[in-house]
Amino acid sequence: IKAGHDLFLSPRLHLVGGKAPGGLLPQEDEDRLAHHIGQDPGGGGSLGLMPVLVFFGLVVVAALMVRGLRQAGEGPVASAARLRLALLLRPETQRALRRLAEEADTTSAKGLADLVDEAVLILLREEPAWRFATYEVKAGGEEEVMARFDAWMVEERSKYQETFRHFEGKKRSEESYRAQMEPGGRYLVVSLLLAERRLHPPKPKLSRAAVREALLDLAGSSPYSLLAAYLSWTPEREGEALTEEELLLLYPELEKL
C-alpha cells in the first residue's frame, strides 16, 4: 500500500459572533425604545405610526418564514461532491500539497474555504498533467449528505497508509515510513471531497473542460455554505509514484481524459 496524506476539516459550528438575526438590541436600547414608544412628547398622540410599522414588519417576517419553509420542502438543500484526479507526478506538486496541508487552518470555516481554494489552484496549474478523473455529486438533506461524505472519506482512507494527517488543528506524521521506488511509476492521485449547503451541478460527461468547470465550482464554496471538506493525495512521499497498473487497480472508476 502506497503512502498517502489526508486533511479533513469539519467546522460543525460555522459562525460565531456577527450580527444577530433580526437585529437584536442590547437591553438598554430596548428599554430606551420602549420608553420612546410609550411616551408622547407634547401630548400629541404620536403612538399611532409605530404599531403599524411593527405589525407590518411582523407580517413580512412571517411571510418570509412561510416562504422559506415551503422552499425547504421542495427538494434537496445540500450536496456532497467528490473529485478524483490522476495526473503525471511532479515533485513540485507533492511539495505544494504538503506545504498547503502543513499551513492550513483546520479549526475554522474560513480556513476550510481557503484550503479548498488553494487546492483547486494547485490542480488547475497542473492541467497539462491531467490523465484520468472521476466526479460524483449526491444531493439531499444535510444528514444524508454528511453520511455520504463520511462514507466517501472512509473509502479514500482505506486505499493507502497515512503518512501525514492534519485534523482539527492536530498534526500526525509517520516518520518511519520509507518511500517505495518502483519502475514505471509516474502517477499522483488527488481526491477532494466537499459537503455543502448548496447544490453542485450534476455530474457532466468527463473531459478536461468538465474537470475544469467542476474545480471552479468547488472553489465557489464559502465559509457560510461548507459543512466539511477532505483533501488527500497519494503517494505523499517524494520519490514515490503509482504505476498505471496500480492506479487502475486502486481506482477502477477512473475515466481517461
Automatic annotation (TrEMBL):
Pfam families: DUF1517
Keyword Isomerase found: no
TM helices/strands, residue ranges: 48-66
Source organism: Thermus caliditerrae
Keywords assigned: Membrane, Transmembrane, Transmembrane helix
Keyword Ubl conjugation: no
Descriptive protein name: DUF1517 domain-containing protein
